[in-house]
Design goal:
Elements lengths: L1 H16 L11 E5 L2 H4 L4 E7 L3 H12 L8 E6 L6 H11 L5 E5 L5 H15 L5 E5 L3 E3 L3 H11 L4 E10 L21 E3 L7 E5 H7 L14 H11 L4 E13 L6 H22 L2 H30 L2 H4 L1 H12 L15
Parallel strand pairs: 2-3, 2-5, 3-4, 7-10
Antiparallel strand pairs: 1-4, 5-9, 6-10, 7-9, 8-10
Length: 349
């Protein structure tokens, strides 16, 4: 325990003494903020990207206000809609009412990765005592023990990046069986070390990771396809950082009716395949590497038949059983430059 305490102290001192330097000017503006002296000693900052969902954003913020454990933390809301800015207006009013402390910023350049980059950069430059950033999306609500579970794990576990469970809540109750589908199911179900994380829906990342990987943290070429988070985690793994799953750090995600429809689920399967192939091509540059990725895609396509039958039988759903074939097809389509930009119109996502 003494070694863990010393490590935590050293990490805190390093965070306080670090002076982040960026080669480019900030792309975001500050819409509202707490007094600097309220933020100067905060070590944990929760980042929330938002786009045209002010009511859901308020529900997210209220779930954070209900966190147990007595931890001191701040929030950065990053509005990614630069015209109407409904989310920024709602969050600014709630900040003024004292629901949370932190900042509300506006990143007017639309893009999922741009929003995360703005929030993480803001955290590094406005919180001198920063030790870790956490994240939740504006269509999610955190269970009361979410923050405590992640911070407790970060204090004790030998890892650098932490993820938690996300349970889908379907607007159409009759479609709740879809929670068994891979596009809705969390990657892990038991707390402990894991090979890697894949989603930024629920995370805690130590500051050291951001300092090592550098800015821009997420590759903005993934802005509208998604996958910038998986690419980031892949690079973190290559840099030697370790991953940990915290099943108790639970969130609930609202699933509107459109996300339970075949077209959306099919598009998400294709997208997941395209993202995986794109990241593998980055790791395997050159003609030889591209051939290896293509060969893997063909193998996955062949294997998708028995794998799909097994998955469909286990879940008693032909729709769910199609997933492996959709992923393989998406990988092959990406070889010809065909990608699904599901985030191009976030209001339809």
């Amino acid at each position: 325990m003494a070694s863990q305490t010393n490590e935590s102290t050293t990490r805190g001192e390093r965070a306080r003494s670090a002076a982040p330097a960026f080669d480019t000017p900030e792309s975001f503006e500050i819409a509202a903020r707490s007094a600097p002296d309220e933020l100067s000693h905060v070590t944990s900052v929760v980042c929330i990207p938002t786009f045209r969902r002010p009511d859901m954003l308020e529900a997210t913020l209220r779930s954070l206000a209900g966190q147990k454990g007595g931890h001191d933390f701040a929030v950065i809301v990053v509005e990614n809609e630069g015209i109407e800015r409904a989310g920024a207006a709602r969050a600014s009013a709630l900040l003024a009412d004292g629901l949370f402390k932190g900042l509300v910023i506006v990143e007017p350049r639309q893009g999922n990765c741009k929003a995360y980059n703005a929030a993480w950069r803001c955290a590094l430059t406005r919180f001198p005592a920063l030790e870790q950033i956490l994240g939740i999306d504006d269509d999610e609500e955190a269970d009361p023990g979410w923050l405590d579970a992640l911070i407790t794990a970060a204090r004790t576990a030998p890892a650098d990046l932490f993820g938690g469970s996300v349970t889908p809540v379907f607007a159409d109750d009759s479609r709740a069986w879809l929670s068994a589908h891979p596009v809705f199911r969390s990657h892990y179900g038991t707390s402990g070390p894991v090979p890697m994380l894949y989603s930024s829906a629920n995370y805690l990342i130590r500051r050291d990771v951001l300092d090592k990987l550098g800015f821009p943290f997420l590759d903005e070429s993934f802005d509208f396809t998604g996958g910038g988070d998986t690419d980031f985690f892949t690079r973190a793994k290559a840099a030697g950082f370790r991953f940990w799953w915290v099943q108790e750090a639970a969130q609930r995600e609202t699933m509107p009716k459109r996300r339970s429809e075949f077209d959306w689920i099919h598009a998400r399967g294709l997208r997941n395949g395209a993202i995986s192939a794109a990241i593998e091509r980055r790791q395997n540059p050159g003609p030889g590497g591209r051939l290896r990725v293509l060969a893997k895609s063909l193998v996955l396509l062949a294997a998708s038949v028995p794998r799909g039958l097994a998955l469909g039988t286990r879940t008693r759903s032909a729709l769910i059983g199609l997933y492996h074939a959709q992923v393989a097809l998406g990988r092959l389509m990406s070889e010809f430059g065909v990608t699904n930009e599901q985030y191009r119109k976030p209001e339809k996502n």
